[in-house]
Amino acid sequence: MKCIVCGKSIQEGIIVNSRFICLKCEERMVNSNIDTDFYNYFIDVLKKSRINKLDTKGESINCQNRL
Ligand SMILES: [Zn+2]
């Protein structure tokens, strides 16, 4: 699995909103206060992940229109 925060492929970690986060990044999240730069970065990554999902749906709608 590839960590969405640090980008490294690591086996151990957690899944948040169907996104993988490695143990080291998860540990930093847990030890972070809500208003830290790292937390804001984490939320930003999750938002980008949702946008990617919407783009995928848009593509399948276009395919249906072509048919
Ligand atoms: Zn990581």
From TrEMBL:
Pfam families, sorted: Gin
Name of protein: Sigma-G inhibitor, Gin
